[in-house]
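To close the chapter, one final illustration. This time we ask the reader to focus less on the individual chains and more on the assembly as a whole: which components sit near each other, and how the overall shape emerges from the parts.
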Amino acid sequence: MTSTPPSTTEALDSVLDRARTASEKLENLRPADTARMLRGIADTLDAAGEELVPLAQRESNLPEGRLCGELARTTFQLRLFGDLVEEGAHLAATIDSPDPEWPTGARPDLRRVHLPIGPVLVFAASNFPFAFSVAGGDTASALAAGCPVVVKAHPGHPDLSRRTAALVEGALAEAGAPEGTFALVEGTDTARAALLDERIRAGAFTGSHGGGRALFDLACSRAEPIPFYAEMGSVNPAFVTPEAARRRGAEIARGYLDSYTLGVGQFCTKPGLLFVPREQQSTFEETLLAEVAKRSAAPMLNPDIEHAFHDTLASLRGHPAVRELVAGTSTEEGVSPTLLATGASEFLEHSDELLRECFGPVSVLVGYSDTTELFRVAERFSGELTATVHGEEDEQPVASLFGILRRRAGRLVWNGWPTGVSVTHAMQHGGPYPATTAPTHTSVGTAAVERFLRPVSFQNSPQAVLPEALRDDNPLGIPRRVDGVRHS
Amino acid sequence: MTSTPPSTTEALDSVLDRARTASEKLENLRPADTARMLRGIADTLDAAGEELVPLAQRESNLPEGRLCGELARTTFQLRLFGDLVEEGAHLAATIDSPDPEWPTGARPDLRRVHLPIGPVLVFAASNFPFAFSVAGGDTASALAAGCPVVVKAHPGHPDLSRRTAALVEGALAEAGAPEGTFALVEGTDTARAALLDERIRAGAFTGSHGGGRALFDLACSRAEPIPFYAEMGSVNPAFVTPEAARRRGAEIARGYLDSYTLGVGQFCTKPGLLFVPREQQSTFEETLLAEVAKRSAAPMLNPDIEHAFHDTLASLRGHPAVRELVAGTSTEEGVSPTLLATGASEFLEHSDELLRECFGPVSVLVGYSDTTELFRVAERFSGELTATVHGEEDEQPVASLFGILRRRAGRLVWNGWPTGVSVTHAMQHGGPYPATTAPTHTSVGTAAVERFLRPVSFQNSPQAVLPEALRDDNPLGIPRRVDGVRHS
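The assembled structure is written out below.
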């Protein structure tokens, strides 16, 4: 049914050669052909749901309903990128006609378009075995850009990875994709060798800070450095204003608990800190104490993740500035939520330790004394995927808080929770370091394709050698900017 | 008239503090205000031309006509970015309305826009004392993005740098820019300290490969790495097809000589290699020998540049695979052109040494035996700012040659020369490493602004906290994508 993917450097060599050969063919495909590939993968995975979901359940401990939803999200994402490719706006096709009067000297005929960057190495994540794994967002956006993809399988779900890869390869072959468009590899050493190989032109990663930073450093250390897009998670602070706490404290407390325990706390957008007014802190604590007790334990993704969770949790709960409100348990049924608490002044004093992401069902409630302290804690963050504000529209601190937070996070959430990451045009899933290594990009949403495109200009070139996107008669019918004027 | 800019770390600290403070004010400016700043700088520099050009002549040895043209280019560039800011397409404003039926789960109201990345450190170049220096393209594009700029002056033209900086600061103050929007610093140690400082959020550089790579490595080594956009020049190969050589060999030879000696060969787009059919090589050599003799010597930018030129030239002309056709001289009048030659098989054998950029008036003529060898040499390049083809439209190898070269260069030039870099929407001045450290970006043309923008999404947020670009009534009147539909 599935064979073992390359995990030796010899086998890797042939994978990378095939990827390079595919690269040269993919860049000449028409948008309709690329879209057909993406939709073919989506159809194939949808049709295999009854096989894939149980495999994912067995290897990830995630419930069936969640996995069915995640598979649907994954195939929708592939199709959305197919639509994007056919629309063609991502090519940013731009034409400037010759202009002898141009102020910087006679302007030649210049035409600029985005071309694929070349073979992309994708590091799959464990917590979304479909949406951020073999056929997930990085793969979909790289294929949409016209790049071959080599996926490094996450060891958390090896059988699902292999089976998904076989289905992707089959779907690509059926859609007429060049051989070598997609490959799966396994093993850390193989992946490191691939990342250092000149045939790989960009890397994408979703996972821990330690892993992401080590791979980013490796990509930058190459004789020919390449872009490396690592999404490394964050603490995702949430802030409750005084007025919101007074009016809707209990509702906010329940929403917070739902969000930080969703998926057993294994979301990179989990709210790891909730800042509440000190005078309301005890009310929040009482509500949460009553609610946490009702939550049952659930298994984490795999023993490695659970082990890492307990390690980080131990250092958090053992911290002298931290009070433990609810001590989660760890039994055969799984892990139950932990709730910790501290004050804003303690947070400010110990923010280095308290800003560590703890991947799992734990969060820290932090009481702040006044607006000045609220702003001071908000200013302590440097790079977050998300920041959340619960407040009232006419409340004084809200605008300032947004002003502080929008410099520090990729997505600002108002009166909601950050754990749902919609796949749309307007999604931003990224942020300044340490949330990611690439603050100018997103890894979710259609703009994710931009990571894998490089611009090329053609000067005075004949129609026959121009990419179709740049030819006079616009055979692809795509939006272009011509002599400064944008045409939709 | 001008004071000495900060060159101590104490003074730097205050520069960076002011830049950070300015950053928070700049991001709330309206486009018209930012455009007024850019146009104010342009007007001020234009008005000071009679003072600045002689200063530049004295410090760069470049002729008056060239410097007047370069100043005009620089101020045009500032105004073009002003126009871009007012148009607003670079903000990529995107709105997705709430949609309960969205396939990945009920979609919230999501709105995405590009915000400034924060204070930018610009390393000025020596060879364009206006266009790639204090008020050059990096500064203009960073200001257009809404970022404060700290320029590290190039030591090649200290007085011009200081005077330009004083004029820029004055123009900014008059245009109402926040204090700290712009600053000049001097000295390598100061610049290194700035690059490592957390208040600097991106860096841009134009210069040598050694300098660019060292600074890129430093930027990546930070506890919080930042994007570093280094444009490090390249060899810019030019290829002459058999038919073009037969029909227009002498004309091409003269154009080549004009291009590689333009500005005493001190352009990052200088054609450093010309590949010609072997059977035409002697004709090319004869034409060039006659023409080179007519060219007079001219002074290089400064003694450091001339010294580096002679060092690199010595290793090239002393290479066993290289023949010296014309030995340039170096006298009090300056440096006269050198012309070297080799064969394609020698080039393939020694490409590591022959692919080194030699900044100055030298180029290498390379004879190739047939189309197969032509393609093989083209494939040897990995990252070039430009690649040039002289050919006939209906000639067989042209399409394949473009296919090979467009994967390796940022700009492809047909039947022309790469040394003119027009400032337009469709310009791409960049390329894969080693031409730059950022293959997905350009440092010339309006797209250069993208380097200094980071996307942020707002989820379900009240109108009052949204950037104007995202408000319902589109008060800026900018192009946006709303529910997937692009509105110009």
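Residues 9-232+439-487 of chain A form a domain with the Aldehyde Dehydrogenase; Chain A, domain 1 fold (CATH 3.40.605.10). The mean pLDDT of chain A is 96. With these observations in hand, you are ready for the problems at the end of the chapter.
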